[in-house]
Amino acid sequence: MYSDSPEFILIFMPLIYLLLGIIFTIVSNVSKNNILKKMEIYTSTTNGTLTKWNHHVSTLHSGETGWYPVFEYDVNGQHYVREENISRTKRGESPVAVVIHYNPSKPHEFYSNSELYFKRSKIFMIAGIGFIAFSILTFIIIVKCI
Question: Which residue ranges make up each domain of the chain?
Answer without folding.
Answer: 16-145
